[in-house]
Queue: 2 jobs
Job 1
Amino acid sequence: MDLTWSAEEDAFRAEARSWLETNLAAWRAELGAEPRSGDTREGFAQHLDWERRLFADRWAVVSWAPEHGGRGASLWEWLLFEEEYYRAGAPPRITQNGIFLLAPSIYEFGTPEQQDGILRRLAGAEDLWCQGWSEPNAGSDLASVTSCAQRVDGGWLLNGQKTWTTRGAFCTHLFGLFRTDPDSARHKGLTYLLVPLDTDGVTVRGFGRLDGDEGFAEVFFDDAFLADDAVPGGVVLGQPEGGWAVAMATAGSERGLTLRSPGRFLATAERLVELCRDRGDDGLRRRAATAWMHADAYQQQTLATVTKLAAGAKAGAEASLTKLWWSELDIELHAIALDLLGPEAELEGPWSKGWQFALSGPIYAGTNEIQRNIAAERLLGLPR
Ligand SMILES: Cc1cc2nc3c(=O)[nH]c(=O)nc-3n(C[C@H](O)[C@H](O)[C@H](O)COP(=O)(O)OP(=O)(O)OC[C@H]3O[C@@H](n4cnc5c(N)ncnc54)[C@H](O)[C@@H]3O)c2cc1C
């Protein structure tokens, strides 16, 4: 690893920092109050406005090709942007399922027509994508999905139900896994489909979470006809019946590099250190220092991963280790903050809200038990 930044990279960071400072201040001033959570209907609209500002000045997807709204930045520069983004306290990305999960798979498996027709609209938050994998009886065991798509003249007939679709209640499109060969079992016979949510026969039913946010949805398909050309370039991503491989690539992005970059945790660790300045005993301060070092170590680990990816390697099963790392780190950082705050932690605030969300980290993107199984079997070669 070469841990020095070049003059161009330093200049890139400075430009990002200055843009974020100016534009965040302007956005907040126009809102006139703290933005609401992006998982509420009102907050989602506020965050959409923010996303469009990012896109207008080409900060939404810095590492993408210019024709898709990016700057053609390197992975290193993307990491720098992420660091600056969270350091500035900019809001969580409501477009994240599209830009961080779906888009890398569109780049890898999509046709040029799909890339040109989907990516730019996705980056500009014109189309908002949610992830339709989980079903009432298929979570950890994703290969047991029963939602199906039957081939008919000019398209597919969809039936079944998806659940836990994050921000599904506010999105316009869904990417999902459907069984297209009814005689197939498990990982075979699945197709990765791109579905506009306004398709006739699709019902999106939002429901609330325990923390009061309301973005989750169940999505029902009742003889919904999905025309082949409902999405530019076609509704199948990859090959029909080859959906599992595409889904695993998407899962690699979710668990590995793109969804939770180190910038997010470095910023939280810095805020934790600030919180220690006028509170806490030696024991708590020592825990905070240890957690700060864990965040720093996560960054070093990510730099090693990017070094390998930049040399052409694929993330593979190692993404499971990354997922274990970030999800447990997030809980550690927030648990210490709550201990530092004492009774104050019970008041609604960024730390208590962050703690509640951190608790879901070991569940979404595949539970941590499943990640440990993957690491045991695929990295350590232990028996099933
Ligand atoms: C905040 C949040 C956002 C989410 N967003 C989305 C989304 O946008 N789209 C989507 O499709 N899904 C989403 N999910 C759903 C998520 O992917 C599932 O909750 C997760 O995969 C677990 O599935 P499950 O809830 O059915 O639990 P189950 O699979 O029923 O698991 C229950 C428990 O059993 C354990 N377990 C299961 N199998 C094994 C095994 N083989 N070995 C050891 N332990 C095992 C699990 O670890 C878990 O503790 C989201 C979940 C959360 C919490």
Job 2
Amino acid sequence: MSDKYPHVEIEAKWQKTWSGEKVYTIDLAKAKKPFYNLMMFPYPSAEGLHVGNMYAFTGTDIYGRFMRMQGYDVFEPIGLDGFGIHSENYAFKVGKHPVEQAKRSEQNFYRQLSLIGSMYDWSRTVETYDPGYYRWTQWLFVQMFRHGLAYRAKAEVNWCPSCKTVLADEQVIEEKCERCGNIVTKRALEQWFFRITAYAGKLLENISRLKWSEKVLVAQEHWIGKKEGINITYPVADEKGNNIGEVICFTTRPDTNFGATFIVLAPEHPFISTIERVIKKENLALLRQYIKDTQKMSSEDRIAQGRKKTGVATGLYCINQLTGQKMPLYISDFVVMGVGTGAVVGVPGHDLRDFEFAQSMGLPVVRVVVGADGNKGPITKPEQVQEDEGIMINSGFLDGVAITEAIEKMKDHLEQKGWGKRVTTYHLRDWLISRQRYWGPPIPMIRCDTCEKSGKGERADMPGWYTVPDDQLPVTLPIIEDYKPGDDGVAPLAKHKEFYETTCPGCGGNATRETDVSDTFLDSSWYFLRYPSVGSLTADTSPFDPALTKQWLPVSMYTGGAEHSVLHLMYSRFVTMALKEWGYLDFDEPFPNFFAHGLVIKEGAKMSKSKGNVVNPDEYIKLYGTDALRMYLMFMGPFSEGGDFRDTGMEGMSRWVGRVWRMATASLESGTTIDTSAVVLKSLHRTIKKVGEDTAKRHYNTAIAAMMEFTNLVNDHGGTLPMPLLKMFLLILAPYAPHLAEELWSRADAVEHGVAKGNAFYSIHQHSWPVFDPQYLTEESTIVVVQVNGKTKGSIVIDTESSSSQEKIEAAVRDSEKMRKYIEAGNIRKVIFVPGRLVNFVIS
Ligand SMILES: [Zn+2]
Ligand SMILES: [Zn+2]
């Protein structure tokens, strides 16, 4: 047999066999112990799979294979999220039509995926641009509309000037477009939204029962951003004291309201139209210029602490009903419309931003909380601004009360007086779902002018709008040539009459289709529900088969990147909750278990195309084989943290794979009768235990290290293993190096049973995880002194249990190369044994 592991032939051979024998396709309906092992939906970059993707896939696959060996019916599907800006932008870049490019990307991606040795069920793939799939994405939109969760509204929205479309808040990361990295601006546009905020409370509440990586839960909690506060109403008066309306300010700290000295409105606040009517002419021009200037800035810049505060005085006053005092009303860019009510009550003594504003406007600062140092005097410096704990002063009925208690007392007081109302607010905004792009599922809505004018429509609150009737779904995306987006915010489909002209489902007259497409994140918000139902009898009549869904969902274990914390993971939870409420599902959390994997870097640097250090797995697979690459990726560091890809490390792993190959082939050649030393046996059982425990916890790196330690030990003890032990080792290696383990397993089988056994193919991957024998695991050891003719020659270390057995001690001494020579120097006449302490060989 060859010394070198022939990975190319062996990996190709087994991939073909697995696929031919359908080793990884299970009968979903018959499964007794279903385990749905899912990797986050890939949206392959058209360049194909990079090593970071393979990292995630491999870590997921090892877990799936391990659970299968634990007796579960593991379903591990794969597909791709190929609609959307990401794929479309790439098609533009390479000058291909998105439809054509999608086909090429799919082919390349699936080809690469078939090489990485994962146990995918290739009979049930999902591609989001398949009309058989997006028909149901559109169905989901229709359900959202029918249940009042989809609506159209004009709003200040994020606009990516490069992608030429609007984006949801979650898709703007540090002011940049999540897909292309360009700076996002704001535009006031009428758009479609999903009312995810209706589920804000539930999304937050359920977090406590999710078994997810902690950092992801924290990110979700933060994004939902629940705040309990109060809306306080302030009457507004002009200089002469005439009432001209009222302003409502949200605050979580009403306790400090005796110290309020001004009110500030966001430049977008609707009350400004009232102000414009009553403000003095010379101030009006100033105000309008200020509003114009503000529109050029990002919200993040506007609210940044420490930035010089600017503003415009309106000449109007708000009345603090607690004190009867007049507080000047300002407009300032540090207040944004999306936060609270877009109006802030200024308490400069106890809020740093308010203090900064008061300083630059020359407004009074009043202390209402005793300083941490006991200071009760005026507040003149930023460091004296007391934001947190303390005791109230200068606050009427609250004097002497601690802040936390004062907050509730003040809320009670304001509510009793009718000046305020307790409210809970969230940072989470409704999900902006429409995109002015081509490459997505057309939004299945129809608008009719006639019905709009007469106030008719499918929903009373949205006259003129109808959903596309169910039997007309899908609304197929037509193949058009002018698919590029424009700067005008009008979608490419809007140029195609043959697409948008249709009949009104209400009055039968002429109507038009919506020409925006939906956000890609809608495609991926429900795909996990589809996989088990692909190819089922109900695949064409329902989005997911009720019986299979009941049997297979929610997902048993979900693995993916933490970067989707508030994107995909939030949207999917929302969609699942809605489907549960409508009676389609009997669970409200799609992923009770979620594991966030780490990221791969290259030689200390983040992988990026511009640096040219993106690792393509293809070349490494060719050079070292899939198994060596799988093992190396998992060995780089803890799976939850990622690791640094180094070619030298890759070579090291390749050498170890070669060592396993030689150890196994040598074992098979030398037959099955070699005696095993106790040390090897014990180490094997410990390794089985360790690899099993670590794999369950996804500590793959330490599991691999344990296997390496074991093979080193075998090397030190003759270099071969008897058949039963070799097979046990191959079983624990199988999830990590599926091809290598399969090949050696089949060779071992041939040695044991002869080649032509005529039985059906029985893959190593259909076997159970080996059971370790606890008798080999006793942790405590005892030192037993070894004497020859009463003279100490050394000692042996043995587990405490065995140390009282004379037979085991004698065997251990014979096993030890160092000790053996003493007792073999003559004939043993007598053995004196003191259990657990000493053995004395009397020889002559
Ligand atoms: Zn963009
Ligand atoms: Zn109509």
